[in-house]
Amino acid sequence: MSNIKTVSRNKVPLGQKSAFGAGHFILNILPGTLGVFIQFFLLTAWGVDPLWAGLLGGLPRIFDSLTDPIMGFISDNTTSKWGRRSTLYFYWCHCKWYTFLFNVAN
């Protein structure tokens, strides 16, 4: 074995890691502060039971943990002449648009 150290070419530079992390930090500050504020407001101002306040934040994540793999399977196995996900985007954009129009009209 030799004692020669070689520079690893697969290493990401610290500046690039920092820039990537700073972007994600900014994107996660708003949801994090809103979650803390909502919990604080529910517990102190409204006097909601902590169990129900926790469930209010946790149930959507549990629902997502069940439905995301199903939707991923559907998305991965969808085939059309426009691509795998384009058909789903087109369909859901129209559903959201009609829902928006229906809610605004009323």
UniProtKB/TrEMBL annotation:
Homology family: Belongs to the sodium:galactoside symporter (TC 2.A.2) family.
Protein's organism: Thalassobellus suaedae
TM ranges: 21-46
Annotated coiled-coil segments of the chain: none
Listed PANTHER family: MAJOR FACILITATOR SUPERFAMILY (MFS) PROFILE DOMAIN-CONTAINING PROTEIN, MAJOR FACILITATOR SUPERFAMILY DOMAIN-CONTAINING PROTEIN
A matching Pfam family: MFS_2
UniProt keyword terms in alphabetical order: Membrane, Transmembrane, Transmembrane helix
Matching InterPro entries: MFS_2, MFS_trans_sf
Protein name, UniProt field: MFS transporter
